Amino acid sequence: MENNNTNGATNRALETYVKGTDFPIQKRESDGYRALIERVQSDLKRDGCAVLKGFIKSEWHSVLEQEGQMVAPDAYFQTETVNAYNVPLDADLPPDHPAKITMQRENAFVARDKIPFTHIIHQLFESERLAEFLSDCFGYEKLYKLADPLAGLCLNVLKPGCVHPWHYDVNEFTVSLLTKKPEAGGLFRYCPGIRSPRDENLPEVRQILEGGERKDPRIKELDLDVGDLQLFQGRYSLHQVSAVKGPIERHTAIFAYTLAPNVIGGTVRTMQLFGRTLPEHEVFEHKKNRADNLLD
Asked: Between these two residues, 232 and 293, which has the higher pLDDT value?
């Protein structure tokens, strides 16, 4: 549990870095705050995605980029062949199942313990007030920071030419902040609600996967800028990040929250993302717990 000094410091960080005139997240009882929550919830209800443009004050954008560049060399980089469902490639599924369509994933992640506490993204993640704001946005009574010492906060690094291929999220929601924008490409593309807890909608999913990066009316595209905060419900919306073009990497901070306290990730997934585990992962190894029976 955070002490008052730490919590106060991280909440003061919101005043420093967040554009309070547009995002009055520290004035929970104000009309402006309620209007902001209504707007975000409306966006989420419509297509499972809400973007808070210019969430971080413009004068801090260069610092975000520099801090990300500082830790990017610590990213664990792995190239692997995957499918959109993150299931074994030899899974016992019909030959025409979309999971039989494979893609290359060339992601790199900087773990939480490699990101200094003084960095902007770490100060934001530690803020209890930010967690309260996000719980209001998603309509939950309370959100807890993921207690995982590696995955609670991480920096996703997409190198030039790399793609984050089509996939679904295991979690009900994700929160991310673009901290470095590539020269071109690196677009966030998603198909709102293409599946539901009751229907995988396999024919349409297969059409999207076979189409690669072609234009499709079912696909929405976001050209995010540095300092944009994105709230996304990716459990039911197929999504990808298109190929990064040019010499500049794409960096995204990912803030992980849970509905229960003291949650730590499993050893297998942790090893996939970071190439290592810690003793805490062995202790807290837990069973799969989902709100649905969809293929992961």
From this structure: 232
